[in-house]
From TrEMBL:
It comes from Geobacillus proteiniphilus. Residues 14-129 form the Schlafen AlbA-2 domain. Transmembrane segments: none annotated. Residues 505-532 are annotated as: Disordered. Residues 507-525 have a biased composition (Low complexity). This is DNA binding domain-containing protein. PANTHER family: GLPR-RELATED TRANSCRIPTIONAL REPRESSOR (PTHR30595), SCHLAFEN ALBA-2 DOMAIN-CONTAINING PROTEIN (PTHR30595:SF6).
Protein backbone atom coordinates (compact mmCIF):
# COMPACT_ATOMS: atom_id res chain seq x y z
CA UNK A 1 0.00 0.00 0.00
CA UNK A 2 1.30 3.45 -0.89
CA UNK A 3 0.67 6.84 0.71
CA UNK A 4 -2.10 7.70 -1.80
CA UNK A 5 -4.09 4.59 -0.92
CA UNK A 6 -3.59 5.23 2.77
CA UNK A 7 -4.76 8.82 2.47
CA UNK A 8 -7.97 7.61 0.84
CA UNK A 9 -8.55 5.23 3.77
CA UNK A 10 -7.90 8.02 6.28
CA UNK A 11 -10.27 10.35 4.43
CA UNK A 12 -12.97 7.68 4.61
CA UNK A 13 -12.60 7.44 8.40
CA UNK A 14 -13.48 4.56 10.72
CA UNK A 15 -15.87 1.74 9.91
CA UNK A 16 -16.38 -1.94 10.66
CA UNK A 17 -13.10 -2.80 8.91
CA UNK A 18 -10.93 0.17 9.92
CA UNK A 19 -9.76 1.52 13.28
CA UNK A 20 -7.67 4.67 13.67
CA UNK A 21 -5.67 5.31 16.88
CA UNK A 22 -3.56 8.38 17.68
CA UNK A 23 -1.01 6.36 19.73
CA UNK A 24 0.73 9.56 20.90
CA UNK A 25 1.63 8.01 24.24
CA UNK A 26 2.81 4.70 22.81
CA UNK A 27 0.98 1.52 21.83
CA UNK A 28 -2.68 1.87 22.97
CA UNK A 29 -3.93 -0.82 25.36
CA UNK A 30 -7.15 -1.22 23.39
CA UNK A 31 -5.24 -2.21 20.25
CA UNK A 32 -5.60 -5.82 21.44
CA UNK A 33 -9.37 -5.51 21.64
CA UNK A 34 -9.40 -4.35 18.02
CA UNK A 35 -6.97 -7.11 16.96
CA UNK A 36 -9.26 -9.70 18.59
CA UNK A 37 -12.37 -8.11 17.06
CA UNK A 38 -11.01 -7.99 13.51
CA UNK A 39 -9.63 -11.54 13.68
CA UNK A 40 -12.94 -12.92 14.95
CA UNK A 41 -15.05 -11.03 12.39
CA UNK A 42 -13.98 -10.24 8.81
CA UNK A 43 -10.50 -8.83 9.29
CA UNK A 44 -9.58 -5.17 9.03
CA UNK A 45 -6.93 -2.46 9.16
CA UNK A 46 -5.55 -0.74 12.27
CA UNK A 47 -3.83 2.62 11.69
CA UNK A 48 -1.54 3.87 14.47
CA UNK A 49 -0.62 7.55 14.30
CA UNK A 50 -3.99 8.83 13.07
CA UNK A 51 -6.00 11.17 15.29
CA UNK A 52 -9.72 11.93 15.10
CA UNK A 53 -10.95 15.53 15.43
CA UNK A 54 -14.71 15.70 15.15
CA UNK A 55 -15.52 13.66 12.06
CA UNK A 56 -12.11 14.10 10.42
CA UNK A 57 -8.85 12.15 10.74
CA UNK A 58 -5.28 13.49 10.62
CA UNK A 59 -1.77 11.93 10.74
CA UNK A 60 0.13 12.85 13.92
CA UNK A 61 3.74 12.57 15.08
CA UNK A 62 4.50 9.17 16.65
CA UNK A 63 7.55 6.96 17.15
CA UNK A 64 6.49 4.47 14.46
CA UNK A 65 9.45 2.10 14.87
CA UNK A 66 8.83 1.75 18.61
CA UNK A 67 5.12 1.18 18.01
CA UNK A 68 5.95 -1.65 15.61
CA UNK A 69 8.40 -3.24 18.07
CA UNK A 70 5.95 -3.00 20.98
CA UNK A 71 3.17 -4.43 18.82
CA UNK A 72 5.23 -7.49 17.77
CA UNK A 73 6.39 -8.01 21.36
CA UNK A 74 2.79 -7.96 22.57
CA UNK A 75 1.25 -10.13 19.88
CA UNK A 76 3.89 -12.82 20.35
CA UNK A 77 3.30 -12.87 24.11
CA UNK A 78 0.81 -15.69 24.95
CA UNK A 79 0.17 -13.98 28.30
CA UNK A 80 -1.33 -11.04 26.40
CA UNK A 81 -3.03 -12.55 23.34
CA UNK A 82 -4.06 -16.13 22.57
CA UNK A 83 -2.46 -16.39 19.12
CA UNK A 84 -0.52 -14.38 16.55
CA UNK A 85 -2.08 -14.89 13.09
CA UNK A 86 0.01 -12.16 11.39
CA UNK A 87 3.12 -12.38 9.22
CA UNK A 88 5.76 -9.69 8.66
CA UNK A 89 4.06 -8.15 5.62
CA UNK A 90 0.90 -7.46 7.66
CA UNK A 91 2.66 -4.64 9.54
CA UNK A 92 4.29 -1.73 7.69
CA UNK A 93 5.27 1.91 8.17
CA UNK A 94 3.99 4.36 5.54
CA UNK A 95 4.97 8.03 5.31
CA UNK A 96 2.13 10.51 4.77
CA UNK A 97 2.67 14.29 4.70
CA UNK A 98 6.03 13.89 6.40
CA UNK A 99 4.59 11.76 9.23
CA UNK A 100 4.94 8.02 9.73
CA UNK A 101 1.83 5.87 10.14
CA UNK A 102 1.81 2.22 11.20
CA UNK A 103 -0.58 0.12 9.13
CA UNK A 104 -1.55 -3.26 10.60
CA UNK A 105 -3.65 -5.58 8.43
CA UNK A 106 -5.46 -8.22 10.50
CA UNK A 107 -6.88 -11.09 8.42
CA UNK A 108 -9.95 -13.08 9.37
CA UNK A 109 -8.86 -15.97 11.58
CA UNK A 110 -9.55 -19.52 10.46
CA UNK A 111 -12.24 -21.38 12.38
CA UNK A 112 -9.51 -23.58 13.89
CA UNK A 113 -7.89 -20.47 15.44
CA UNK A 114 -11.07 -18.78 16.69
CA UNK A 115 -11.66 -17.33 19.13
CA UNK A 116 -8.68 -14.97 19.25
CA UNK A 117 -8.82 -13.52 22.76
CA UNK A 118 -6.97 -11.36 25.27
CA UNK A 119 -5.43 -13.00 28.32
CA UNK A 120 -6.21 -16.54 29.45
CA UNK A 121 -10.00 -16.71 29.38
CA UNK A 122 -11.84 -16.70 26.03
CA UNK A 123 -15.15 -15.98 27.78
CA UNK A 124 -13.87 -12.65 29.13
CA UNK A 125 -11.35 -11.63 26.47
CA UNK A 126 -13.03 -12.32 23.11
CA UNK A 127 -14.16 -9.41 20.91
CA UNK A 128 -15.93 -8.92 17.62
CA UNK A 129 -16.59 -5.96 15.36
CA UNK A 130 -19.76 -4.28 14.13
CA UNK A 131 -20.54 -0.89 12.58
CA UNK A 132 -20.36 0.74 15.99
CA UNK A 133 -16.92 -0.58 16.97
CA UNK A 134 -15.45 -3.42 19.05
CA UNK A 135 -17.75 -5.29 21.42
CA UNK A 136 -17.15 -8.06 23.93
CA UNK A 137 -18.62 -11.38 22.85
CA UNK A 138 -21.28 -13.14 24.86
CA UNK A 139 -20.68 -16.56 26.34
CA UNK A 140 -22.90 -18.08 23.63
CA UNK A 141 -20.90 -16.45 20.82
CA UNK A 142 -17.63 -17.79 22.24
CA UNK A 143 -19.13 -21.25 22.67
CA UNK A 144 -20.16 -21.32 19.00
CA UNK A 145 -16.64 -20.34 17.90
CA UNK A 146 -15.12 -23.06 20.09
CA UNK A 147 -17.60 -25.62 18.71
CA UNK A 148 -16.58 -24.73 15.15
CA UNK A 149 -12.92 -25.47 15.96
CA UNK A 150 -13.61 -29.19 16.09
CA UNK A 151 -12.61 -31.33 13.09
CA UNK A 152 -15.56 -33.60 13.98
CA UNK A 153 -18.74 -32.30 12.26
CA UNK A 154 -21.57 -31.36 14.62
CA UNK A 155 -24.13 -33.45 12.72
CA UNK A 156 -22.16 -36.71 13.08
CA UNK A 157 -22.66 -36.71 16.86
CA UNK A 158 -24.35 -39.92 18.06
CA UNK A 159 -27.33 -39.43 20.37
CA UNK A 160 -27.61 -42.73 22.27
CA UNK A 161 -31.00 -41.89 23.82
CA UNK A 162 -32.60 -41.31 20.41
CA UNK A 163 -33.74 -44.14 18.17
CA UNK A 164 -36.20 -45.19 15.49
CA UNK A 165 -39.19 -44.13 17.64
CA UNK A 166 -38.04 -40.53 17.21
CA UNK A 167 -38.22 -40.72 13.42
CA UNK A 168 -41.11 -39.95 11.12
CA UNK A 169 -41.33 -43.20 9.15
CA UNK A 170 -43.19 -41.60 6.26
CA UNK A 171 -40.17 -39.32 5.75
CA UNK A 172 -37.82 -42.32 5.85
CA UNK A 173 -39.94 -44.33 3.37
CA UNK A 174 -40.14 -41.37 1.01
CA UNK A 175 -36.37 -40.94 1.13
CA UNK A 176 -35.75 -44.65 0.39
CA UNK A 177 -38.17 -44.52 -2.55
CA UNK A 178 -36.35 -41.52 -4.03
CA UNK A 179 -33.01 -43.21 -3.47
CA UNK A 180 -34.07 -46.47 -5.18
CA UNK A 181 -35.71 -44.61 -8.10
CA UNK A 182 -32.53 -42.63 -8.70
CA UNK A 183 -30.21 -45.63 -8.13
CA UNK A 184 -32.23 -48.79 -8.86
CA UNK A 185 -29.15 -51.06 -8.93
CA UNK A 186 -27.52 -49.73 -5.77
CA UNK A 187 -26.66 -52.47 -3.21
CA UNK A 188 -28.10 -50.41 -0.34
CA UNK A 189 -31.63 -50.90 -1.69
CA UNK A 190 -31.71 -54.44 -0.29
CA UNK A 191 -30.57 -53.51 3.21
CA UNK A 192 -32.72 -53.68 6.34
CA UNK A 193 -33.89 -50.30 7.65
CA UNK A 194 -31.28 -49.93 10.41
CA UNK A 195 -28.44 -50.92 8.12
CA UNK A 196 -29.61 -48.46 5.45
CA UNK A 197 -29.82 -45.64 8.00
CA UNK A 198 -26.33 -46.54 9.23
CA UNK A 199 -24.95 -46.39 5.65
CA UNK A 200 -26.33 -42.94 4.91
CA UNK A 201 -25.17 -41.57 8.29
CA UNK A 202 -28.53 -41.28 10.04
CA UNK A 203 -27.71 -43.95 12.60
CA UNK A 204 -24.44 -44.35 14.51
CA UNK A 205 -22.69 -46.26 17.24
CA UNK A 206 -20.48 -45.07 20.09
CA UNK A 207 -17.37 -47.24 19.76
CA UNK A 208 -16.41 -46.83 23.41
CA UNK A 209 -19.67 -48.28 24.75
CA UNK A 210 -21.16 -49.86 21.62
CA UNK A 211 -24.34 -47.84 22.27
CA UNK A 212 -26.47 -47.23 19.21
CA UNK A 213 -28.42 -44.09 18.48
CA UNK A 214 -29.49 -41.60 15.87
CA UNK A 215 -26.89 -39.13 14.69
CA UNK A 216 -27.80 -35.47 14.93
CA UNK A 217 -28.05 -35.53 11.12
CA UNK A 218 -30.52 -38.41 11.26
CA UNK A 219 -32.66 -36.68 13.88
CA UNK A 220 -32.71 -33.41 11.93
CA UNK A 221 -33.34 -35.03 8.57
CA UNK A 222 -36.06 -37.51 9.51
CA UNK A 223 -37.08 -36.81 13.11
CA UNK A 224 -40.39 -35.68 14.55
CA UNK A 225 -40.37 -31.98 15.47
CA UNK A 226 -41.04 -32.71 19.16
CA UNK A 227 -38.03 -35.03 19.36
CA UNK A 228 -35.81 -32.52 17.55
CA UNK A 229 -36.72 -29.60 19.82
CA UNK A 230 -36.19 -31.73 22.95
CA UNK A 231 -32.54 -31.90 21.95
CA UNK A 232 -32.32 -28.54 20.11
CA UNK A 233 -34.73 -26.06 21.76
CA UNK A 234 -33.77 -23.29 19.28
CA UNK A 235 -34.68 -25.42 16.23
CA UNK A 236 -37.19 -23.71 13.96
CA UNK A 237 -37.94 -23.79 10.23
CA UNK A 238 -39.99 -21.15 8.45
CA UNK A 239 -41.04 -20.38 4.88
CA UNK A 240 -42.73 -17.08 4.02
CA UNK A 241 -44.22 -16.05 0.70
CA UNK A 242 -45.63 -12.70 -0.34
CA UNK A 243 -47.16 -12.47 -3.80
CA UNK A 244 -47.03 -8.69 -4.23
CA UNK A 245 -44.70 -5.84 -3.30
CA UNK A 246 -47.40 -3.74 -1.66
CA UNK A 247 -45.95 -2.34 1.61
CA UNK A 248 -47.55 -3.78 4.73
CA UNK A 249 -49.17 -6.76 3.01
CA UNK A 250 -49.11 -9.93 5.10
CA UNK A 251 -47.55 -13.18 3.98
CA UNK A 252 -49.80 -15.03 1.52
CA UNK A 253 -48.28 -18.42 2.35
CA UNK A 254 -46.36 -19.56 5.41
CA UNK A 255 -44.94 -22.87 6.64
CA UNK A 256 -43.48 -23.38 10.11
CA UNK A 257 -42.02 -26.51 11.62
CA UNK A 258 -43.96 -26.22 14.88
CA UNK A 259 -47.58 -26.14 13.65
CA UNK A 260 -48.17 -29.87 14.21
CA UNK A 261 -49.62 -30.59 10.76
CA UNK A 262 -46.46 -32.23 9.40
CA UNK A 263 -43.23 -33.80 10.66
CA UNK A 264 -41.23 -30.56 10.96
CA UNK A 265 -37.97 -32.21 9.81
CA UNK A 266 -35.48 -31.03 7.18
CA UNK A 267 -36.38 -33.61 4.54
CA UNK A 268 -40.07 -32.75 4.45
CA UNK A 269 -39.33 -29.01 4.77
CA UNK A 270 -37.14 -29.17 1.67
CA UNK A 271 -39.85 -30.70 -0.52
CA UNK A 272 -42.61 -28.48 0.84
CA UNK A 273 -40.55 -25.38 0.14
CA UNK A 274 -38.84 -26.22 -3.16
CA UNK A 275 -42.18 -26.70 -4.93
CA UNK A 276 -43.33 -23.28 -3.79
CA UNK A 277 -40.05 -21.65 -4.78
CA UNK A 278 -40.14 -22.99 -8.32
CA UNK A 279 -43.81 -23.50 -9.26
CA UNK A 280 -44.29 -20.10 -10.94
CA UNK A 281 -40.81 -19.36 -12.27
CA UNK A 282 -41.18 -17.39 -15.47
CA UNK A 283 -38.20 -18.96 -17.25
CA UNK A 284 -38.38 -20.02 -20.93
CA UNK A 285 -38.11 -23.78 -21.32
CA UNK A 286 -35.12 -25.30 -23.09
CA UNK A 287 -34.87 -28.08 -25.66
CA UNK A 288 -32.81 -31.25 -25.57
CA UNK A 289 -33.03 -32.56 -29.10
CA UNK A 290 -36.75 -32.80 -29.92
CA UNK A 291 -37.85 -32.80 -26.28
CA UNK A 292 -38.75 -29.93 -23.96
CA UNK A 293 -36.68 -29.60 -20.77
CA UNK A 294 -38.68 -27.89 -18.04
CA UNK A 295 -35.84 -27.92 -15.52
CA UNK A 296 -33.53 -24.94 -16.00
CA UNK A 297 -30.32 -23.71 -14.44
CA UNK A 298 -32.42 -21.36 -12.27
CA UNK A 299 -34.41 -24.32 -10.87
CA UNK A 300 -31.11 -26.05 -10.06
CA UNK A 301 -29.76 -22.87 -8.45
CA UNK A 302 -32.76 -22.61 -6.09
CA UNK A 303 -32.36 -26.27 -5.13
CA UNK A 304 -28.69 -25.60 -4.47
CA UNK A 305 -29.47 -22.55 -2.36
CA UNK A 306 -31.99 -24.42 -0.22
CA UNK A 307 -29.72 -27.45 0.31
CA UNK A 308 -26.80 -25.16 1.23
CA UNK A 309 -28.96 -23.31 3.74
CA UNK A 310 -29.90 -26.57 5.48
CA UNK A 311 -26.38 -28.03 5.32
CA UNK A 312 -24.52 -24.92 6.54
CA UNK A 313 -26.85 -23.94 9.38
CA UNK A 314 -25.73 -23.96 13.01
CA UNK A 315 -28.69 -25.74 14.62
CA UNK A 316 -27.47 -24.73 18.07
CA UNK A 317 -27.76 -21.06 17.00
CA UNK A 318 -30.61 -18.60 17.35
CA UNK A 319 -33.67 -17.69 15.24
CA UNK A 320 -33.75 -20.80 13.08
CA UNK A 321 -33.88 -21.09 9.29
CA UNK A 322 -35.99 -18.64 7.32
CA UNK A 323 -36.70 -18.92 3.58
CA UNK A 324 -38.55 -16.03 1.94
CA UNK A 325 -40.09 -15.59 -1.48
CA UNK A 326 -41.33 -12.25 -2.71
CA UNK A 327 -42.32 -10.95 -6.11
CA UNK A 328 -38.77 -10.14 -7.19
CA UNK A 329 -36.51 -11.99 -4.77
CA UNK A 330 -35.67 -15.15 -2.87
CA UNK A 331 -33.88 -14.97 0.50
CA UNK A 332 -32.27 -17.83 2.43
CA UNK A 333 -31.20 -17.15 6.01
CA UNK A 334 -29.65 -19.57 8.48
CA UNK A 335 -28.07 -19.35 11.95
CA UNK A 336 -24.27 -19.41 12.01
CA UNK A 337 -21.65 -17.54 10.00
CA UNK A 338 -19.58 -19.06 7.20
CA UNK A 339 -16.73 -21.34 8.20
CA UNK A 340 -14.52 -19.93 5.42
CA UNK A 341 -13.89 -16.26 4.53
CA UNK A 342 -16.75 -14.62 2.66
CA UNK A 343 -14.63 -13.77 -0.40
CA UNK A 344 -13.47 -17.37 -0.62
CA UNK A 345 -17.06 -18.60 -0.46
CA UNK A 346 -18.04 -16.25 -3.30
CA UNK A 347 -15.19 -17.49 -5.51
CA UNK A 348 -16.23 -21.14 -5.05
CA UNK A 349 -14.05 -24.23 -5.25
CA UNK A 350 -13.70 -24.64 -1.47
CA UNK A 351 -16.44 -25.72 0.90
CA UNK A 352 -16.59 -26.38 4.61
CA UNK A 353 -20.21 -27.32 5.40
CA UNK A 354 -21.09 -27.34 9.08
CA UNK A 355 -23.23 -30.46 8.51
CA UNK A 356 -21.53 -32.64 5.87
CA UNK A 357 -23.67 -35.70 6.72
CA UNK A 358 -26.87 -33.77 5.95
CA UNK A 359 -25.21 -32.55 2.74
CA UNK A 360 -24.33 -36.15 1.85
CA UNK A 361 -27.92 -37.32 2.46
CA UNK A 362 -29.23 -34.76 -0.02
CA UNK A 363 -26.54 -35.61 -2.58
CA UNK A 364 -27.48 -39.29 -2.38
CA UNK A 365 -30.92 -38.44 -3.78
CA UNK A 366 -29.56 -36.13 -6.47
CA UNK A 367 -29.80 -32.82 -4.63
CA UNK A 368 -26.77 -30.59 -4.11
CA UNK A 369 -23.64 -30.31 -6.20
CA UNK A 370 -20.04 -31.17 -5.39
CA UNK A 371 -18.51 -29.29 -2.47
CA UNK A 372 -17.62 -25.68 -3.20
CA UNK A 373 -19.57 -25.35 -6.46
CA UNK A 374 -22.91 -24.20 -5.03
CA UNK A 375 -22.43 -20.44 -5.02
CA UNK A 376 -20.62 -20.61 -8.35
CA UNK A 377 -23.58 -22.44 -9.97
CA UNK A 378 -26.05 -19.93 -8.52
CA UNK A 379 -24.00 -17.04 -9.93
CA UNK A 380 -23.92 -18.69 -13.37
CA UNK A 381 -27.69 -19.20 -13.36
CA UNK A 382 -28.37 -15.58 -12.43
CA UNK A 383 -25.82 -14.30 -14.95
CA UNK A 384 -27.47 -16.38 -17.67
CA UNK A 385 -30.75 -14.54 -17.00
CA UNK A 386 -28.98 -11.13 -16.82
CA UNK A 387 -30.32 -10.73 -13.30
CA UNK A 388 -28.72 -8.77 -10.48
CA UNK A 389 -25.84 -10.82 -9.03
CA UNK A 390 -26.56 -12.85 -5.86
CA UNK A 391 -25.69 -11.21 -2.55
CA UNK A 392 -24.15 -13.23 0.29
CA UNK A 393 -23.64 -11.52 3.65
CA UNK A 394 -22.87 -12.40 7.26
CA UNK A 395 -24.46 -10.80 10.32
CA UNK A 396 -23.44 -10.95 13.97
CA UNK A 397 -25.37 -10.70 17.24
CA UNK A 398 -26.81 -13.23 16.50
CA UNK A 399 -24.67 -15.00 13.89
CA UNK A 400 -26.46 -15.44 10.57
CA UNK A 401 -25.65 -16.06 6.91
CA UNK A 402 -28.05 -14.55 4.36
CA UNK A 403 -28.20 -15.26 0.63
CA UNK A 404 -30.44 -12.91 -1.38
CA UNK A 405 -31.33 -13.73 -5.00
CA UNK A 406 -33.07 -10.92 -6.86
CA UNK A 407 -34.82 -11.58 -10.16
CA UNK A 408 -34.43 -7.99 -11.29
CA UNK A 409 -32.61 -7.09 -14.48
CA UNK A 410 -29.21 -5.46 -14.10
CA UNK A 411 -30.75 -2.43 -15.79
CA UNK A 412 -34.51 -2.68 -15.24
CA UNK A 413 -36.46 -0.12 -17.25
CA UNK A 414 -38.28 0.99 -14.12
CA UNK A 415 -35.03 2.16 -12.52
CA UNK A 416 -33.68 3.69 -15.71
CA UNK A 417 -36.92 5.69 -16.07
CA UNK A 418 -36.61 6.74 -12.45
CA UNK A 419 -33.08 8.08 -12.95
CA UNK A 420 -34.13 9.94 -16.10
CA UNK A 421 -37.10 11.48 -14.28
CA UNK A 422 -34.89 12.75 -11.46
CA UNK A 423 -31.80 13.79 -13.42
CA UNK A 424 -33.44 15.09 -16.58
CA UNK A 425 -30.92 16.25 -19.16
CA UNK A 426 -28.03 15.34 -16.83
CA UNK A 427 -28.78 11.63 -17.30
CA UNK A 428 -27.19 11.56 -20.77
CA UNK A 429 -23.83 12.59 -19.27
CA UNK A 430 -23.65 9.42 -17.14
CA UNK A 431 -21.36 6.60 -18.26
CA UNK A 432 -22.67 3.01 -18.47
CA UNK A 433 -20.84 2.15 -15.25
CA UNK A 434 -22.37 5.13 -13.44
CA UNK A 435 -25.86 4.12 -14.59
CA UNK A 436 -25.28 0.58 -13.31
CA UNK A 437 -24.16 1.92 -9.91
CA UNK A 438 -27.17 4.21 -9.51
CA UNK A 439 -29.59 1.53 -10.70
CA UNK A 440 -28.16 -0.94 -8.18
CA UNK A 441 -28.47 1.63 -5.40
CA UNK A 442 -32.11 2.18 -6.42
CA UNK A 443 -32.94 -1.51 -6.64
CA UNK A 444 -31.12 -2.67 -3.52
CA UNK A 445 -31.40 0.51 -1.38
CA UNK A 446 -27.59 0.85 -1.21
CA UNK A 447 -24.47 -0.26 -3.01
CA UNK A 448 -20.94 -1.13 -1.85
CA UNK A 449 -17.57 -1.46 -3.52
CA UNK A 450 -17.61 -5.22 -2.90
CA UNK A 451 -21.08 -5.56 -4.40
CA UNK A 452 -20.03 -3.72 -7.56
CA UNK A 453 -17.00 -5.97 -7.96
CA UNK A 454 -19.44 -8.87 -8.29
CA UNK A 455 -21.48 -6.97 -10.91
CA UNK A 456 -18.62 -5.68 -13.05
CA UNK A 457 -15.16 -6.74 -14.16
CA UNK A 458 -13.58 -3.72 -12.48
CA UNK A 459 -11.13 -3.71 -9.58
CA UNK A 460 -11.73 -2.13 -6.20
CA UNK A 461 -9.70 1.03 -6.90
CA UNK A 462 -11.51 1.66 -10.20
CA UNK A 463 -14.88 1.30 -8.49
CA UNK A 464 -13.74 3.62 -5.68
CA UNK A 465 -13.08 6.35 -8.24
CA UNK A 466 -16.51 5.87 -9.81
CA UNK A 467 -18.22 6.02 -6.42
CA UNK A 468 -16.25 9.11 -5.40
CA UNK A 469 -17.24 10.79 -8.65
CA UNK A 470 -20.94 10.13 -8.06
CA UNK A 471 -20.59 11.47 -4.50
CA UNK A 472 -19.01 14.66 -5.86
CA UNK A 473 -21.88 15.05 -8.34
CA UNK A 474 -24.34 14.84 -5.47
CA UNK A 475 -25.94 11.58 -6.63
CA UNK A 476 -24.67 9.25 -3.89
CA UNK A 477 -24.27 9.70 -0.15
CA UNK A 478 -21.68 7.59 1.73
CA UNK A 479 -22.77 5.90 4.97
CA UNK A 480 -19.92 4.51 7.07
CA UNK A 481 -16.31 4.69 5.98
CA UNK A 482 -13.56 2.72 4.30
CA UNK A 483 -14.10 -0.62 2.61
CA UNK A 484 -17.41 -1.10 4.40
CA UNK A 485 -18.95 2.15 3.12
CA UNK A 486 -22.51 1.83 1.87
CA UNK A 487 -23.62 4.37 -0.73
CA UNK A 488 -27.27 5.42 -0.92
CA UNK A 489 -29.08 7.70 -3.33
CA UNK A 490 -29.16 11.30 -2.12
CA UNK A 491 -32.09 13.37 -0.90
CA UNK A 492 -33.34 14.42 -4.33
CA UNK A 493 -33.89 10.76 -5.30
CA UNK A 494 -35.74 10.09 -2.03
CA UNK A 495 -38.05 13.04 -2.69
CA UNK A 496 -38.92 11.78 -6.16
CA UNK A 497 -39.46 8.25 -4.86
CA UNK A 498 -41.78 9.37 -2.06
CA UNK A 499 -43.92 11.52 -4.30
CA UNK A 500 -44.54 8.88 -6.97
CA UNK A 501 -45.70 5.39 -6.00
CA UNK A 502 -44.36 4.09 -9.31
CA UNK A 503 -40.86 4.67 -7.97
CA UNK A 504 -41.65 3.83 -4.34
CA UNK A 505 -38.77 1.40 -4.00
CA UNK A 506 -36.76 3.38 -1.47
CA UNK A 507 -39.56 5.16 0.34
CA UNK A 508 -38.80 3.33 3.56
CA UNK A 509 -35.45 5.12 3.87
CA UNK A 510 -34.56 7.92 6.29
CA UNK A 511 -36.72 10.50 4.52
CA UNK A 512 -40.14 8.84 4.80
CA UNK A 513 -41.57 11.85 6.59
CA UNK A 514 -40.91 14.19 3.69
CA UNK A 515 -43.80 13.10 1.46
CA UNK A 516 -46.38 15.62 0.45
CA UNK A 517 -48.39 17.00 -2.47
CA UNK A 518 -45.34 18.54 -4.10
CA UNK A 519 -42.84 15.77 -3.37
CA UNK A 520 -42.96 14.43 -6.90
CA UNK A 521 -42.07 17.74 -8.52
CA UNK A 522 -38.39 17.75 -9.39
CA UNK A 523 -36.53 21.03 -9.56
CA UNK A 524 -36.04 23.97 -7.21
CA UNK A 525 -38.89 22.98 -4.84
CA UNK A 526 -37.05 19.80 -3.87
CA UNK A 527 -33.89 21.67 -3.05
CA UNK A 528 -35.82 24.30 -1.10
CA UNK A 529 -37.59 21.63 0.96
CA UNK A 530 -34.29 19.89 1.69
CA UNK A 531 -32.69 23.19 2.73
CA UNK A 532 -35.67 23.96 4.97
CA UNK A 533 -35.24 20.63 6.75
CA UNK A 534 -31.51 21.16 7.11
CA UNK A 535 -32.05 24.63 8.59
CA UNK A 536 -34.62 23.32 11.11
CA UNK A 537 -32.30 20.50 12.16
CA UNK A 538 -29.34 22.85 12.55
CA UNK A 539 -31.43 25.28 14.57
CA UNK A 540 -32.69 22.57 16.93
CA UNK A 541 -29.18 21.17 17.51
CA UNK A 542 -27.34 24.51 17.75
CA UNK A 543 -27.10 24.46 21.56
CA UNK A 544 -25.51 21.00 21.56
CA UNK A 545 -22.92 22.02 18.99
CA UNK A 546 -21.96 25.12 20.97
CA UNK A 547 -21.82 23.53 24.44
CA UNK A 548 -19.60 20.54 25.11
CA UNK A 549 -21.49 19.74 28.30
CA UNK A 550 -25.26 19.54 28.45
CA UNK A 551 -27.67 18.26 31.06
CA UNK A 552 -28.77 14.76 29.93
CA UNK A 553 -32.41 15.85 29.96
CA UNK A 554 -31.54 18.76 27.63
CA UNK A 555 -29.73 16.42 25.25
CA UNK A 556 -32.66 13.97 25.35
CA UNK A 557 -35.04 16.74 24.36
CA UNK A 558 -32.81 17.87 21.48
CA UNK A 559 -32.45 14.31 20.14
CA UNK A 560 -36.20 13.67 20.33
CA UNK A 561 -36.97 16.97 18.62
CA UNK A 562 -34.47 16.20 15.84
CA UNK A 563 -35.88 12.71 15.27
CA UNK A 564 -39.40 14.13 15.18
CA UNK A 565 -38.48 16.06 12.02
CA UNK A 566 -37.28 12.94 10.18
CA UNK A 567 -35.55 9.63 10.95
CA UNK A 568 -31.84 10.23 11.50
CA UNK A 569 -28.89 7.84 11.42
CA UNK A 570 -26.33 7.73 14.21
CA UNK A 571 -23.83 9.43 11.90
CA UNK A 572 -26.27 12.26 11.13
CA UNK A 573 -27.02 12.78 14.82
CA UNK A 574 -23.30 12.75 15.58
CA UNK A 575 -22.67 15.52 13.06
CA UNK A 576 -25.66 17.63 14.14
CA UNK A 577 -24.81 17.35 17.84
CA UNK A 578 -21.01 17.48 17.47
CA UNK A 579 -20.65 14.31 19.55
CA UNK A 580 -18.74 11.12 18.79
CA UNK A 581 -20.93 8.25 17.65
CA UNK A 582 -19.99 5.59 20.20
CA UNK A 583 -20.61 7.68 23.37
CA UNK A 584 -23.76 9.12 21.78
CA UNK A 585 -25.11 5.65 21.11
CA UNK A 586 -24.24 4.25 24.53
CA UNK A 587 -25.32 7.21 26.66
CA UNK A 588 -28.42 8.41 24.83
CA UNK A 589 -29.70 6.40 21.85
CA UNK A 590 -29.69 2.99 23.56
CA UNK A 591 -31.43 4.39 26.65
CA UNK A 592 -34.06 6.30 24.67
CA UNK A 593 -34.79 3.12 22.69
CA UNK A 594 -35.24 1.13 25.91
CA UNK A 595 -37.50 3.83 27.33
CA UNK A 596 -39.65 3.67 24.20
CA UNK A 597 -39.08 7.32 23.35
CA UNK A 598 -37.15 6.47 20.17
CA UNK A 599 -38.03 3.80 17.62
CA UNK A 600 -35.62 2.18 15.11
CA UNK A 601 -36.54 2.54 11.45
CA UNK A 602 -35.69 -1.15 10.90
CA UNK A 603 -36.83 -2.87 14.14
CA UNK A 604 -36.37 -6.39 12.76
CA UNK A 605 -32.73 -5.77 11.78
CA UNK A 606 -31.03 -3.67 14.46
CA UNK A 607 -27.68 -3.67 12.63
CA UNK A 608 -29.24 -2.59 9.33
CA UNK A 609 -26.64 -0.48 7.45
CA UNK A 610 -29.22 2.30 6.97
CA UNK A 611 -30.61 2.13 10.51
CA UNK A 612 -32.11 5.42 11.61
CA UNK A 613 -34.04 6.57 14.69
CA UNK A 614 -37.30 8.45 15.04
CA UNK A 615 -39.43 9.63 17.92
CA UNK A 616 -42.17 7.32 19.04
CA UNK A 617 -44.87 9.77 18.00
CA UNK A 618 -43.44 9.99 14.47
CA UNK A 619 -43.37 6.21 14.18
CA UNK A 620 -46.96 5.92 15.40
CA UNK A 621 -48.21 8.50 12.91
CA UNK A 622 -46.61 6.70 9.99
CA UNK A 623 -47.96 3.30 10.81
Amino acid sequence: MDAKDLLRIIDDGENAELECKAAKGGLPKDVWETYSAFANTNGGIILLGVEQKGQEFFPVDVDAKKLVKDFWDGINNPQRISKNILVDRNVEIIEVDGKEIVRIYVPRASREDKPIYIGHNPFTGTYRRNYEGDYKCTKEEVQRMIADQSPIPQDSKVLPNYGLNDLNMESVRSYRNRFSSLKPDHPWNGLELKEFLYKIGALGRLRETNEEGLTLAGLLMFGEERSITEYLPQYFLEYREKSSDVPGERWTDRIISSDGTWSGNLYDFYFKVIRRLTDDLNIPFQMEGLFRKDDTRVHAALREALVNTLAHADYYGQRGIVVEKEKMLFRFSNPGVLRIPLQQALKGGISDPRNPTIFKMFMLIGLGERAGSGIENIHLAWKEQHWTAPELIEEFQPDRTILTLRTTSLLPQESVDFLKAVLGKHYKFLTNDEVLILVTAHQENYVTNTRLQSLTDKKSDEISKLLSGLVEKGYLEPNGQGRGTKYTLTEMFHQKSIGNSRYNRISSGPNVNNSGPNAANSGPNENEQTKDHEKVLLDISELARKKKRLNPSEMDEIILNLCAIKPLTLKELSQLLNRQMDPLRKKYISRLLKEGKLEPLYPEQINHPKQAYMTRSLFTNQH
